[in-house]
Amino acid sequence: MSATRTADRARDELGAFEGELIGPEDAGYDEARTLFNAMIDKRPALIVRCASADEVGQVIAFARRQRLPIAVRGGGHNGGGLGSVDAGVVIDLSLLRAVSVDPGTRTVRVGGGCTWGEVDAATHEHGLAVPCGIISTTGVGGLTLGGGIGHLTRGYGLTIDNLLGAEVVLADGRCVRASTDANEDLFWAVRGGGGNFGVVTEFTFRAHPVSDVVGGPTFWAIEQTDEILSAYREFLPKLSRNATGFFCWHTVPPAPPFPEEIHMRKVCGIVWCIVGSDEDAERAMSPMLEVAEPLMHGVGRMPLHALNSAFDGLYGPGDQWYWRADFVNEIPDEAIAQNREWNEKMPSWKSGSHVYPIDGAAHDVSAGDTPWAYRDARWSQVIIGVDSDPASAGALREWAVRYWEAVHPYSAGGAYVNFMMDDEGQERVKATYGVNYGRLARAKATYDPENAFRVNQNIQPDS
Ligand SMILES: Cc1cc2nc3c(=O)[nH]c(=O)nc-3n(C[C@H](O)[C@H](O)[C@H](O)COP(=O)(O)OP(=O)(O)OC[C@H]3O[C@@H](n4cnc5c(N)ncnc54)[C@H](O)[C@@H]3O)c2cc1C
Q: Are 93 and 199 in contact (CB under 8 A)?
């Protein structure tokens, strides 16, 4: 069936529909199909902005009758473009954006199409926060269902560790609740198993009393990587849980607030987030500041939501992105040298790598308690090739893949699903879920036996 006919047929079959149906002939089509990663250019047969869980169910049924692949779009940030699909139906959740905070119970209900900036702003009004990611435009849906790493991971766990319940529209169109009291196996599966089990139209999170933090970057010259990273690998695991700092390699952006004399210098560094007093923060950071004189120490007190959006301007939509990732237990000297060498060869000034701490409260949960199998890994590393010029796409990929090949032998095996592209293969998905893959495959056989939700890091139903 042609894409035009799909849109017409959907209009006929779905009848009175509060949401929005957008086909290739419609004026808003190009804008609606655009993803955060401009390297991915997909042309769906139909994009449907659903206004309710009931409409999500109707669209799932329509797509399945037409035998069309289904993609689910939360924030549209996925590196591999898994929020869209060529010649299929995109269920776009951007109309489901309500956020409601209950300060009494410290719980937050969040529509399936929200971005984290919206949640952060609403919780901050009550002096609360839900652990989330470090860029505010990222979707709540994809980030949560994959796990969720950010500045509060050491203090309060992964985002999934703070998920209390979800409203899920299943492949058969039923809308069910998943929590410790209802459909417990589904609740287990959605806390890391991605969009494999259904469309989440509402999340309920536990929030924590976090308001202002001390945060920002400290940069050293990239040539000092060996000295700084070898100190950091000992320092970070001993740091108290109210403090964190992810390690990074970057090029200093050529703009304020970065001092002009270091613009475009390649650096290694730590991006801090400390929940506590200024004195607590100074005490926490001082062992690293004593290792060597930094080029820049740009740390100050700010609302958490300001830190969670500090890099939004730098990493806006429309750039080319290629990602590779691994979980890491130890960082031997050989890995440090490889990281330095590959970052000295960054293919563009927006490229780099981050090493996020995932210990502390994230280690309080056992490997089998959620699908996130790497509960003993200390870090989650991501390598990002990023540039605005489409002509550099090949070079970004080549650099990220070759860098990853050089450091992968020192890794724990799998990677965080949300830092993977869509070309890494089924073995890589299995390595990531490790001991939990079998249980996920059984849950998939229960909730989506025909693999209707397969545009994701796919878990195949147990036969
Ligand atoms: C600039 C940038 C910064 C990032 N920073 C972080 C970070 O700090 N921490 C971190 O953990 N991750 C981070 N990520 C990775 C991020 O978690 C993933 O890209 C994630 O997939 C984005 O979710 P999304 O909803 O925006 O994506 P989408 O592209 O909309 O969807 C991604 C996947 O999730 C599924 N999905 C989305 N919403 C739903 C839903 N409601 N129900 C069912 N399935 C759904 C989709 O089907 C798809 O498979 C970052 C990504 C980018 C681009």
A: yes
Q: Is the CB of 200 inside a 6 Å radius of any atom of ligand 1?
A: yes
Tell me the CA–centroid distance for residue 137 and ligand 1, in Å: 10
- Given a cut of 70, whether residue 1 has pLDDT beyond it is no
Query: Residue 219: how many CA atoms within 13 Å on its side-chain side?
Result: 18
Beta carbon of 358 within 6 Å of any ligand 1 atom: no
CA-CA distance, 405 to 361, in Å (whole number)? 30
Q: What is the mean pLDDT of residues 160-183?
A: 98
Q: What is the pLDDT of residue 187?
A: 98
Cα separation, 254 vs 64, in Å, equals 49
Pairing of the two strands 107-111 and 89-92: unpaired
pLDDT tens for 124-170 read 999 999 999 999 999 999 999 999 999 999 999 999 999 999 999 99
In short, whether 142's Cβ falls inside 6 Å of ligand 1 is yes
Reference 425, options 384, 377, 460; nearest CA is 460
Tell me if 84 CB under 6 Å of ligand 1. Answer: no
DSSP single-letter state for residue 160: G
